[in-house]
Amino acid sequence: MAITASLAPSTSLQLPSFFHGEASSSSSKSTLFMGTPLTSSAHSGIPSFPRKQLVVFSKRISGLQEAFRIRKERGLPSVTTSKRRPPLRRGRVSPRLTVPDHIQKPPYVGSNTLPEISSEHQIHDSEEIARMRAACELAARVLNYAGTFVRPSITTNEIDKAVHQMIIEAGAYPSPLGYGGFPKSVCTSVNECMCHGIPDSRQLQNGDIINIDVTVYLNGYHGDTSKTFLCGDVTDAMKRLVKVTEECLERGIAVCKDGASFKKIGKRISEHAEKYGYGVVERFVGHGVGTVFHSEPLILHHRNDQSGCMVEGETFTIEPILTMGSSIECKTWPDNWTTLTADGSPAAQFEHTILITRTGAEILTTC
């Protein structure tokens, strides 16, 4: 789950949605839930294009205008563009589900106050790594299971119920449930929703994309992962956005190893996203994860000058969000969680929890 992060030293973290959060410093309030949000004036998120490309783009527009003119003269039917998908609307949110008393619960359960982001990096010994592997493997299995429900007419509330049941049957707790007051067991972010979408009665439509963000708390350890799924007949443009977002995650993980600088992650992700003209959301960031849901280091997915290096045995998430087009501005619904692109353009996200090793990084959220 990302958290919201602010680069301004005096700004407190805000947690608009489930796993993303906002953070300005290690002592700030956590908004880390599903991809921490991060704001920065140093990077606009708007890629620059060489003059040659602009000329080519202009010629393409001229060619399209000429085609319309010829069709009109010959009485041919006009070429129409597809209608814009209706904006996302809130459905009915059902009461939160219950968890049996015998299941171990995180310390934040029972309070609607957002937990502090821990300033300590979570570095593990061999026994602790084994527990992290178990939690992350369960999270991966739950996510794969949740993906089997994605189809037109299914509601995100039904996906939440299925996820909740599988997690408690495995003897684990759904980490999002009750985190800072979050009312559901999973985050479901559809189309223009960047992150922290709350499951409700809205039915998925043919052509939607949906990110499902799963975190489980098993034997005192959190495992955190997410994936964007295709619902029915999705356009090629949306498929490309989803594919490139997953590739960005893979490129970010590829630079990780003991001693590597954290800023390399954002550099690699930005380089790949910009090849396709996509924006990399800065407001939400990855985070340390383990016995604590959200901790340092905060992982920035855009170009940055973040200090610090990775350490063997450390675990954290990488969870980039890409938008179609270069705009990365966002808006949050009154529920203080659901965060959408300001211009209504689609967004996609992928997330893994990784373990830093001497020679690279092990992806823990696989099964």
Automatic annotation (TrEMBL):
Entry's Gene Ontology BP terms: proteolysis
Keywords: Aminopeptidase, Hydrolase, Metal-binding, Protease, Transit peptide
Enzymatic reactions: Release of N-terminal amino acids, preferentially methionine, from peptides and arylamides
Residues binding substrate, per UniProt: H196, H294
InterPro entries on file: Creatinase/aminopeptidase-like, Pept_M24, Pept_M24_MAP, Pept_M24A_MAP1
Function, in words: Cotranslationally removes the N-terminal methionine from nascent proteins. The N-terminal methionine is often cleaved when the second residue in the primary sequence is small and uncharged (Met-Ala-, Cys, Gly, Pro, Ser, Thr, or Val).
Name used for this protein in its record: Methionine aminopeptidase
